[in-house]
Automatic annotation (TrEMBL):
Belongs to the chloride channel (TC 2.A.49) family. ClC-3/CLCN3 subfamily. Strongly outwardly rectifying, electrogenic H(+)/Cl(-)exchanger which mediates the exchange of chloride ions against protons. The CLC channel family contains both chloride channels and proton-coupled anion transporters that exchange chloride or another anion for protons. The presence of conserved gating glutamate residues is typical for family members that function as antiporters. GO terms for cellular component: early endosome membrane; Golgi apparatus; late endosome membrane; lysosomal membrane; plasma membrane; synaptic vesicle. It is found in: Cell membrane; Early endosome membrane; Late endosome membrane; Lysosome membrane. This is Chloride channel protein. Keywords: Antiport, ATP-binding, CBS domain, Cell membrane, Chloride, Endosome, Glycoprotein, Ion transport, Lysosome, Membrane, Nucleotide-binding, Repeat, Transmembrane, Transmembrane helix, Transport. One of its GO terms (molecular function) is chloride:proton antiporter activity. It is a multi-pass membrane protein. Residues 660-726, 757-815 form the CBS domain. InterPro entries: CBS_dom, CBS_dom_sf, Cl-channel_core, ClC, ClC3.
Amino acid sequence: MESEQLYHRGYCRNSYNSIASASSDEELLDGAGVIMDFHTTEDDNLLDGDAASPGSNYAMSNGGGAPSSSTHLLDFLEEPIPGVGTYDDFHTIDWVREKCKDRERHRKINSKKKESAWEFTKSLYDAWSGWLVVTLTGLASGALAGLIDIAADWMNDLKEGVCLSALWFNHEQCCWTSNETTFAERDKCPQWKSWAELILGQAEGPGSYIMNYFMYIYWALSFAFLAVCLVKVFAPYACGSGIPEIKTILSGFIIRGYLGKWTLMIKTITLVLAVASGLSLGKEGPLVHVACCCGNIFSYLFPKYSKNEAKKREVLSAASAAGVSVAFGAPIGGVLFSLEEVSYYFPLKTLWRSFFAALVAAFVLRSINPFGNSRLVLFYVEYHTPWYLFELIPFILLGVFGGLWGAFFIKANIAWCRRRKSTRFGRYPVLEVILVAAITAVVAFPNPYTRKNTSELIKELFTDCGPLESSQLCEYRSQMNGSKAFTDNPNRPAGPGVYSAMWQLCLALIFKIIMTIFTFGLKVPSGLFIPSMAIGAIAGRIVGIAMEQLAYYHHDWFLFKEWCEVGADCITPGLYAMVGAAACLGGVTRMTVSLVIIVFELTGGLEYIVPLMAAVMTSKWVGDAFGREGIYEAHIRLNGYPFLDSKEEFTHTTLAREVMRPRRNDPPLAVLTQDDLTVEELQGIINETSYNGFPVIVSKESQRLVGFALRRDITIAIENARRKQEGIMLNSRVYFTQHAPTLPADSPRPLKLRSILDMSPFTVTDHTPMEIVVDIFRKLGLRQCLVTHNGRLLGIITKKDILRHMAQMANQDPESIMFN
């Protein structure tokens, strides 16, 4: 109850002073850091016809001429009002109120901690609760990630066979203890039986191939069907990657149930099934969603976070860092990912806690050791040669390919998802998943590079050829006898195996490109990191082998003659695969710094940061030439989430008066006069309109602005005044001034509502450029601002008006971008 006392404070009128007095760790709003989002029925309720919600928020003030913070919001109330401080689904939080409430709670704890040992213990618990919640989040994220990795590997191998000696072993684990494996066929052992061997009793021949083919398709369809049914029945929010919605939630939007326990449980189970089904998707993006679910659930154990939505978002920022940490084994990359890609309010304190959460999650994952290689990283590589300056040319070309692929994928995937939303096909998500899974399984099985798990494919493409590698990509001809040989010098003429692998990789590249477009957005958990990296790794390996053969056959060319000695090892095809993977992922997501850190943590290739940086930056430039939106921003816009992207520039020359409402032919702006209304008239305005707030003016003739009052505050004030004050009647005069107006002696008792009035609403003049208005909304997280001319009220601009205007300027349907 104590934490809710602030609701009765007039913080709207002293918000600026509160901000100025905040400590560095408790800064209220970081200028460009907070974006506040509004649902259709909330932000447009200020002007147009949706029902007012009980979750309406207080207006933000610019704090001019503020009275002291002791002014009570409802000065006649003595106890908190039930329901105040909670938010409806698809509404935004009020950052100002939440941060003020947290500071008030903090002051009360500090003032009481010297009273007794118990109060001092409570203050210590409160101070350490932030570290406790991120520790629990990191522990749960690491444990769930390890469980998902182990289960996905086992179920993926289940499509090909089973281990008779221990059913819970996957293919690799089954053959670890076998003494009958050979170097050339290290993946074959008596303990592992394919389905053809179990059912038909034969391992070779057309019959066994057809049986294995059939069982592969059967298991793929079974896993996909089970995944989509669980999502549809138990947790519809468990589909997709979750990152677009998490970005929106972290910007202040409320989506009830998206981070709940049912979503966590179903997402964990169906993620394993979806990955094992062989669909062109990854588990890395959904792991961020899983970690954020853990953070949200654990935050309810601590009142400091459960009762404060703004503080809860600090935990979610740390949880997203832990998610990337366990997804890639990249704790530093996870922190930078949270900072660069998903968070909008990221104070220094959150940076430290994100770092700690990522550390704990990575430690737990390393303890579980799901990859069986005693390493945290997913694709550990060791290259024996440095990169040379002339190789920047193919690295930059790979960056160009990544940018082109990213731009093409975003446009194609968004077009398909929009078609899915607008046609009858979208009504049958189960059928769509089954159809895509069937096509994927039928086409993938004949090609060994598409049949295997995508993570294993990327690992093989990253790996350098050496004497211990038995991959077809390493079948070079020996110069001595022309047969297959493995020596320490890979710069040899490619053998038939390499050329065969090149053709298979080209087919795999086309297959992955097509299927990823149709897979991302299905009603199953689907990440985009691994498929994008696989496409880039395939393209990079092809380019790397081509460069290697050029260096061998044309070592006297100027480029190679300068850097490559005859017979020297100077081209590493695996490095090209790594650079291509980073370029394609950068082209799709438009990440830069965090992506480079993730990739070098993922592979351990610290020496190759410069090629990675060159490729990632090139892919971003090329992708931005076709559109500045990454895939996550594009899906946010497709779903119509009210989200002002801070990365998007507004370059149009419109003015505030062209965007404000009311416009021509619109009904006049609904306003309240400061001392002319009765309770009955005020209730009539509230009942006849659905606006979420009303400007208060001196009189209809002057139109001089006094302040701004929210509908919810007015309703609460009237209801509580009737209960607690005698003499309040329908014909009682309502006034927002300091002193009551002169009334006849027989008039009923007037109702003073000045305490709920925001005396300093944010205003702009009608000649203010919209470029400045948009910047103000982004950096201050405004809900609305009023438009004046020479002090007279003209209209109002809401966040929804800005989103509509930006869509109109981009030649889009203004109504199509709003939330549905």
